[in-house]
Design brief:
Strand order of the largest sheet: 8-15-14-11
Distance between the termini: 159 Å
Number of helices: 0
Structural class: mainly beta
Strand content: over 45%
Oligomer: single chain
CATH topology of the largest domain: Immunoglobulin-like
Helix content: under 10%
CATH architecture of the largest domain: Sandwich
Number of strands: 58
CATH class of the largest domain: Mainly Beta
């Protein structure tokens, strides 16, 4: 039986009457074969194939006689060898991969593989896509262990099997995703928010939430362990809140949300410029009393400005309460603008109306009657006028009666000269008109007499005068006439009075007295004519006290320049730093005209007062500080 494919042919021969001389083997029938030793009694035969053979042995004896015999050989087919199955190597996959390829094979040493078949022996659900092929896709696998068997069958119907183990591991946990929500911006006074967080887990569920504050000021997370939480008590600034989510497998994820808390929008301040005011000339100043409040801050600055009206001087425009000086008839509008600590502004206006009472007529004074003696042919007319509620605008001299001559040199001047006088009596009239058009007249006489000898000048020191402190400087206007000559010199004297004073122009017809003190001064004016005769007149100067005045030592205070231009500078030394001082400039009637209030922060202080708006003339600088004597200094504005 194959695979045995060789035999030994064991022949023999006998000869009763002799000997066997030769043997010979031949194949009579059958397939291929190889008689190895055909001329021997026994011979190997190889290379046999399945089938029936007949081999013949011929023997020859020593006499040449032959005999034959045959042997039949049957070569059976080899028995079938079963095939070999190979299901492939064991496989391990991890979800979400849920399909594999089963790579099987089969071999048959004595034939061919005629069929394959895959079956699932153990495990969960699975789908063998091509069960009757050596290789097949398997899909739909779930976590667990599978055993798949491959059966192969050969062309002789023999079969063989092999198994492959497939392990499907659970998918590695996918971390959850945290979403803390969109960034948030709020504006105070809103100081709470809602944190709207969420979490997702593609392979499980969210088991917990947790909110924490990473950065920022005070805050109260109301429900830190929920997806959405209220946060209260926020203050201005920037915050960062973190949301942590945890899934059912313990994996975590975080996300942050930024919260910006803006300051409350600035509330503009509220300003009040005060109530409207009405004043009546001669009052020419007012106090503007402003105020302001700021609900969410403080007032940083004040600023007064004149919006409409005639000229005026605001003493300190940066104060809430300030004085306005130099007012004249008309309607003024002043605006107060305040600015708060955040830069917001607000304005309010106040109206000041300056009215004039029914016009008081001016008072004309043509002066005293004059006598002159020939050969004098001229005389000086010294007129004057006052207006209690205004100013005198024009003067006009008119000759009313008299002989020829007596010509008026300048009829439109308060003081003028008449010429070409001849003996006789002249009457002159002075006509004055004030700023409201009111008219007043006064007359005087000039008598031109024949000379009878030198006559003393006629002196007029002016009417008695009363002034009130803080005025400490006054100007006196005197005059003198000489009927038979001319006045050549003057002299002013203080006969009696308190303290020492300073005189400027004591040898002129007008004089300035400085550093007056409360009390009564007796003032004498003397005048000499061209022939040496002297005339005298006396007037009384009353200084009534309204506050204490005292001159500081000269080395403590100095004003410059004096005469002053548009700006007055004050050089002041003090041992009292932090002391507040008001510099007040008043006119000859004591009316405030300019001021500046400062704080003396150094031993040597240089401060200024704006006097550009003042008309030329004499003024008094008052240096006023609470708890200290008031100082008065004369000031000439050029």
């Amino acid at each position: 039986t194959l695979p045995t494919n060789s035999i030994i042919l064991n022949g023999s021969g006998t000869d009763v009457d002799g000997t066997i001389a030769s043997y010979n083997w031949v194949k009579l029938t059958g397939g291929v074969a190889n008689i190895v030793s055909a001329n021997t009694a026994s011979s190997n035969v190889s290379g046999l194939v399945q089938g029936n053979y007949t081999f013949q042995l011929t023997v020859r004896d020593n006499s040449g006689a032959t005999a034959t015999d045959v042997v039949n050989v049957t070569v059976l087919a080899a028995p079938n060898v079963p095939p070999t199955a190979n299901a492939g190597n064991d496989i391990t996959i991890t979800l979400p991969t849920n399909s594999i390829i089963l790579n099987g094979s089969g071999t048959d040493v004595d034939g061919t593989i005629s069929s394959y078949n895959w079956v699932k022996l153990t495990g969960g659900v699975a789908n063998i896509v091509s069960a009757n092929t050596a290789s097949s896709n398997v899909s739909g696998l779930v976590q667990g262990n599978y055993t798949f068997q491959l059966t192969v069958r050969d062309n002789s119907g023999a079969s063989a099997t092999d198994v492959v183990n497939v392990t499907v591991l659970a998918a590695p946990n996918v971390p959850p995703t945290a979403n803390a929500g969109n960034d948030i911006t709020i504006t105070l006074p809103t100081n709470s928010i809602i944190l709207n967080g969420s979490g997702t887990d593609v392979d499980g569920t969210i088991s917990s939430y947790n909110w924490v504050k990473l950065t920022g000021g005070a805050a109260n997370i109301v429900s830190a362990n929920t997806a959405s939480s209220n946060v209260s008590g926020l203050v201005q600034g920037s915050y960062t809140f973190q949301l942590t989510v945890r899934d059912n497998s313990g994996a975590t994820a975080t996300d942050v949300v930024n919260v910006t808390v803006l300051p409350a929008p600035n509330v503009a301040p509220m300003v009040n410029a005060g109530t409207d005011q009405v004043i009546t000339i001669p009052i020419n100043q007012v106090t503007l009393t402003g105020s302001a409040i700021d609900a969410d801050g403080s007032i940083a600055s004040y600023a007064w400005v004149k919006m409409s009206g005639p000229a005026a001087f605001i003493s300190d425009a940066s104060l809430s309460t300030t004085n306005v000086l130099g007012l004249s008839e008309g309607v003024y509008t002043f605006r107060l603008t305040v600015r708060d600590n955040s830069g917001a502004t607000a304005s309010d206006e106040v109206q000041v109306t300056v009215v004039r009472n029914a016009n008081i007529l001016p008072v004309a004074n043509a002066g005293a009657d004059i006598e002159v003696y020939v050969p004098v042919s001229t005389a000086n007319l010294s007129g004057s006028a006052t207006d209690a509620d205004g100013i005198v605008l024009t003067y006009n001299w008119i000759k009313i009666t008299g002989p020829a001559g007596g010509f008026i040199s300048n009829a439109l001047s308060a003081s003028t000269q008449i010429t070409a006088l001849v003996p006789g009596e002249y009457t002159y009239q002075l006509v004055v008109i004030d700023n409201d058009g009111a008219v007043d007249r006064d007359t005087m006489k000039v008598s031109v007499l024949e000379a009878t000898g030198n006559m003393a000048p006629v002196v007029n020191a002016g009417p008695d005068l009363t002034v009130l402190t803080p005025i400490s400087t006054v100007e006196l206007q005197g005059s003198a006439t000489d009927h038979d000559g001319e006045v050549v010199s003057y002299r002013w004297k203080i006969v009696s009075g308190p303290g020492r004073i300073a005189m400027v122009g004591e040898h002129n017809s007008s004089v300035m007295f400085h550093f007056l003190q409360p009390g009564v001064y007796t003032v004498v004016l003397q005048a000499w004519d061209n022939l040496g005769a002297v005339g005298t007149d006396t007037m009384l100067l009353y200084v009534n006290s309204t506050q204490v005045t005292q001159e500081l030592p000269k080395d403590f205070i100095r004003i410059f320049p004096n005469p002053v231009g548009p700006r007055l500078s004050i050089h002041l030394r003090t041992y009292h730093q932090g002391r507040r001082v008001k510099y007040l400039v008043v006119d000859m009637y004591g009316r405030p005209m300019a001021e500046n209030t400062v704080t003396l922060n150094q031993f040597i202080n240089i401060n200024q007062v704006n006097v550009a708006h003042l008309a030329p003339g004499w003024y008094t600088l008052k240096i006023i500080s609470e708890g200290y004597p008031t100082v008065s200094l004369p000031l000439l504005k050029r």
